C-alpha cells in the first residue's frame, strides 16, 4: 500500500469518486478517527439499486483507486451475492449495499458517535 503518498481522507474522497462514476447513491462518510478502538479511520457507505449495480460500484471503486492512487483493497468480501460488498483498504473500509439491505444493517446508527458527512446524489 502507498500510505505515505496519500492520506486516508484522500483515499475516502477517491472512493466517493469511484462510487459516483457508477451512480451509487446515498453516500455517507463516517469519520471514526476520533473514536476509541476503531478498526479504521473512515467508513464509506453507499447503496445501489440491484446486485448488478452493487457489483459494478465495487468494481468502479477498485478501478478508480487503482488508477488514481495506485492502490488496491487488502480484502474484499460479499462478491458472491452482491447484497453487501465490503472493500477493506486498511484505513478506509467501504460498504456497498443493495438498497434493501442497507437499512437492515444500519451501520450509520451503530456508529452514531462518528462524524457523518453525507454526499449529495449527483442525479
From TrEMBL:
It is found in: Cytoplasm. Gene3D superfamilies: Beta Polymerase, domain 2. The keyword Cytoplasm applies. The keyword Repressor applies. Interacts with ribosomal protein uL14 (rplN). Functions as a ribosomal silencing factor. Interacts with ribosomal protein uL14 (rplN), blocking formation of intersubunit bridge B8. Prevents association of the 30S and 50S ribosomal subunits and the formation of functional ribosomes, thus repressing translation. HAMAP family: Iojap_RsfS (MF_01477). This is Ribosomal silencing factor RsfS. It comes from Carboxylicivirga mesophila.
Amino acid at each position: 500500500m502507498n500510505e505515505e503518498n496519500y492520506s486516508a481522507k484522500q483515499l475516502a474522497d477517491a472512493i466517493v469518486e469511484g462510487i459516483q462514476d457508477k451512480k451509487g447513491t446515498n453516500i455517507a462518510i463516517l469519520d471514526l478517527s476520533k473514536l476509541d478502538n476503531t478498526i479504521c479511520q473512515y467508513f464509506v457507505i453507499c447503496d445501489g439499486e440491484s446486485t448488478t449495480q452493487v457489483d459494478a460500484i465495487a468494481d468502479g471503486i477498485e478501478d478508480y483507486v487503482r488508477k488514481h492512487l495506485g492502490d488496491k483493497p487488502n480484502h474484499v468480501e460479499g462478491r458472491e451475492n452482491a447484497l453487501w460488498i465490503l472493500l477493506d483498504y486498511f484505513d478506509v473500509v467501504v460498504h456497498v449495499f443493495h438498497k434493501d439491505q442497507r437499512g437492515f444493517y444500519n451501520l450509520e446508527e451503530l456508529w452514531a458517535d462518528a462524524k457523518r458527512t453525507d454526499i449529495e446524489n449527483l442525479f
